[in-house]
């Protein structure tokens, strides 16, 4: 659970406790009034449990303050936003390894992953050296501990899922990602060789969105769809974890529209091969 979320939940709990005290009620009295166990009142006002909307309505009425219900519901809505928004500053405070272990578990729990990458190779397809450069650069950028080797190990372990016969991977990569080079030439060459060899493998659909292709929907940012239960979107400052049906449908439509413009199979290999040939290896 994110610290941002817990802090916001504790703030809501403190407001509930304040309302109870202003009403001159002990916790056990409020519980009896509402027909709850006293432990529920304790958990809610100490930020140990997330209240349901009906809980807040009942609490406000029992305290004789129906006028504050809208305020309480607004605080709860803020909780949901904190749960969706996960700051990189907090997630990576101890380095990359922890977030990579979360990625391993998410992948293990998923049958189909669909993803779009705009400017870099998807982590599931990265070589160890390419991943190492990405992690080192990000640690420097964010000023976090360089736990690179542990993060690379976790990322490579995550890639074992590519060979699970129960899983399917469908990815789109903008052609620009084949040319954007944040690593030495030899590392990029090895990475492009790996991508080339992944095209056409069973359970892996890798499409390239070519320069100059007409798109029904542009590709504004990267995103990953885990089955039909979760969409993860990365920004510079945070991740968005979206679980609402409307959000998932919207990103599925975006993925479908982009997939129409993808090049697959032999045409995808030609695009990767052209990028590989552009590298000057001396």
Topology (elements, then pairings):
Blueprint: H1 3-22, H2 27-34, H3 38-45, H4 53-62, H5 69-84, E1 85-87, H6 88-91, H7 97-108, E2 112-117, H8 128-142, H9 148-158, E3 168-174, H10 185-198, E4 204-209, E5 223-226, E6 230-234, E7 238-242, H11 245-259, H12 265-277
Parallel strand pairs: 2-3, 3-4
Antiparallel strand pairs: 1-7, 2-5, 5-6, 6-7
Summary tags:
282 residues, alpha/beta, 434 Repressor (Amino-terminal Domain), Endonuclease, Chain A, 2 domains, 12 helices
What would you note in describing this structure?
This is DNA-binding protein. One of its GO terms (molecular function) is DNA binding. Keywords: DNA-binding. It comes from Streptomyces cellostaticus. Residues 16-72 form the HTH cro/C1-type domain. The protein has 282 residues and is of the alpha/beta class. It folds into 2 domains: 3-86, lambda repressor-like DNA-binding domains (434 Repressor (Amino-terminal Domain), Orthogonal Bundle); 94-277, Endonuclease, Chain A. The chain has 12 helices and 7 strands. It has helices spanning 3-22, 27-34, 38-45, 53-62, 69-84, 88-91, 97-108, 128-142, 148-158, 185-198, 245-259, 265-277, and strands at residues 85-87, 112-117, 168-174, 204-209, 223-226, 230-234, 238-242. It has a 7-stranded mixed beta sheet. A hairpin with a 3-residue loop joins strand 5 and strand 6. Helix 2 (27-34) packs across helix 3, helix 7 (97-108) runs parallel beside helix 9 (148-158) and helix 8 (128-142) crosses helix 9. The longest helix has 20 residues, at 3-22. The protein is elongated, with a radius of gyration of 24 Å. The termini are far apart. The relative contact order is 0.11.
